[in-house]
Amino acid sequence: MIDFSLTDNHLAVRDMARNVAAKVITPNIREYDRAHKANPELLEAMASANLLGFCVPEQYGGLGMDYISLGLASEEMEYADTSARVVLSVHIGLYCLPVLTWASEEQKQKFLTPAAKGDKIGCFGLTEPGAGSDVVGIQTTAVKDGDHYILNGEKMWISLANNADFFLTFAWTDLEKKKKRDHSGISAFILEKGMDGLTTAKIEGKLGVRAGDTGSYAMQDVEVPAANLIDKEGSGFKIAMFCLDQGRYTVAAGSCGLIRACRDASVTYSHQRKTFGEEIGQHQLVKQMIADMEAAYEYCTYLWMKAGWLKNQAKRSTKATSLAKWIACREAEAAAANAVQVYGAYGFSDEYPVERFYRNAKGASIYEGTREIHTLMQADYALGIRKEKDLDRDLPVVEQ
Ligand SMILES: Cc1cc2nc3c(=O)[nH]c(=O)nc-3n(C[C@H](O)[C@H](O)[C@H](O)COP(=O)(O)OP(=O)(O)OC[C@H]3O[C@@H](n4cnc5c(N)ncnc54)[C@H](O)[C@@H]3O)c2cc1C
Question: How far apart are CA 98 and CA 5, in angstroms?
């Protein structure tokens, strides 16, 4: 049976996210975006509304909600601003859900429960100055020394780096495998704020997500207890790919929020602005742009919902998630470009929000797998070069 209806829990999470967005983000987003500054109240507001761990099981401090709820909250956050959806993508998608799935019981108590309650913030450190898409090109190393590992390296373009308490970090533990570019030599660790030799910095001059915390961190001889190794040596690449399966899902759903924001802003303006004696919404070419946004919103929603439906049943969702992310980001870029077009010269000014949508839309075709990487993935699935195998671990099955 196909059922597109949302449950009361889904509607409650959606309303919760919508309220936080309307109260905390929308009123002053233009000022924060202009100032390239993160809203200092956002994380606390999201924590108080239980938005930082709602799809983590209750035993680890969350609300035990399903992955459709995560998609809905992502959409609402990005409707207000991409920077707020990034918080969900990183803290829940790239940090909490992987820790839930791959960490030991003791590690979950220490690194998941406080994060799911919103008392601590997690981030995800894979990208480096010299390696993004090419994950095995990372240079960070973790050398075993008794009951510690010594980490050296630099992580770049890390969302929430300057607010994070926990840094899920990927590093080579097998230096022979590093030389051979064999990804089974990569391991995952959690670094903790305040560790000697761990320093963070803000990235200045960004095109978009200006109200978000995007940073870098450097590790100089950081002594990390062996107890902070997640799973076992060599699992790092699998864990990183698992993280991306969850983060990409929130980017896909969030992009639908951006498409909807573009559509709503375009509809409003199309009723206000008149040319040649009528509202611009009466001109067929303007209708075309709005119709494209409407269609994109609908079909991109179905794509992320299918991925969420698979996740709820703990079925492998890499292909569905990649497709949803690729297409929703592509359509969000197109919708934002058209929204600027609908506004004419006013779209070129930050008096209206559409230029922010346009700048924000670009980032999502770069992070969590570039447009090109997802294109290649989908072609490889179709060609039979890539296959959807069962994972060693998966998310817990959740009731909808
Ligand atoms: C706002 C923002 C937030 C981010 N947050 C995080 C974060 O929290 N954590 C984190 O680890 N990273 C984060 N990133 C980094 C992001 O994941 C990387 O930028 C991304 O993986 C691409 O890597 P790159 O920038 O090094 O580009 P490259 O990998 O150098 O690619 C450059 C270009 O070449 C293309 N290309 C590369 N390889 C191929 C290929 N095989 N075939 C065809 N084309 C190819 C790419 O598609 C791209 O167009 C963030 C980035 C941004 C912009």
Answer: 28
Q: Is 208 in the pocket of ligand 1 (CB under 6 A)?
A: no
CA 209 / ligand 1 centre spacing (Å): 15
Cα within 13 Å of Cα(331), Cβ side: 32
Our measurement of the distance from residue 278's CA atom to the centroid of its chain's CA atoms, rounded to an integer in Å, reads 41
Q: pLDDT band at residue 319, thresholds of 50, 70 and 90?
A: very high
Q: Crossing angle, helix 318-342 and helix 236-272, to 10 degrees?
A: 30
Q: Which atom of ligand 1 is nearest to the CA of 125?
A: 11
The per-residue pLDDT for range 224-243, each reduced to its tens digit, is 999 999 999 999 999 999 99
- The class level of CATH for 123-235 reads mainly beta
- Residue 368: active-site member: yes
Choose which CATH entry (3.40.30.10, 1.20.140.10, 3.30.70.270, 1.10.10.10) describes domain 237-383. Answer: 1.20.140.10
The CB density around residue 174, as the number of other CB atoms within 10 Å, is: 17
Task: Name the strand (E) or helix (H) holding 298.
Answer: helix 284-312
Rg for the chain, CA atoms, rounded? 21
Segments making up each domain of the chain, as ranges: 8-121, 123-235, 237-383
Mean pLDDT of 182-205: 98
**Which is catalytic among the residues 58, 204, 368, 399?**
368
* CATH fold of the domain at 8-121: Butyryl-Coa Dehydrogenase, subunit A; domain 1 (1.10.540)
Q: Look at residue 124 and give its three-state secondary structure.
A: strand
What confidence score (pLDDT) does residue 400 get? 59
Its pTM stands at 0.98
Any ligand 1 atom below 6 A from CB of 367 = yes
